[in-house]
Amino acid sequence: MNNKGILTAAAMSALLGLSACSQWPWSGSSNSGSTQTHSSLNNQKAQSHDSSPQQNTVAAMNQNGIHVVADPRSTLVLVNKYFKLPNDYVPNDLVDLDVPFIFSGKSEKKKMRRAAAAPLKRMFDAAKKDGIQLAGVSAYRSHKSQVALFNYYVQRDGEKKALNYSARPGTSEHETGLAIDVSGMNGKYAATQEFGKTPEAAWLAKHAQDYGFIVRYPEGKESVTGYEYEAWHLRYVGLPAAQKIAQAHETLEEYLNDVPVSQ
Question: What InterPro entries has UniProt attached to this entry (predicted)?
Answer without folding.
Answer: DD-CPase-like, VanY-like_core_dom, VanY/YodJ_core_dom, Zn_M74/Hedgehog-like
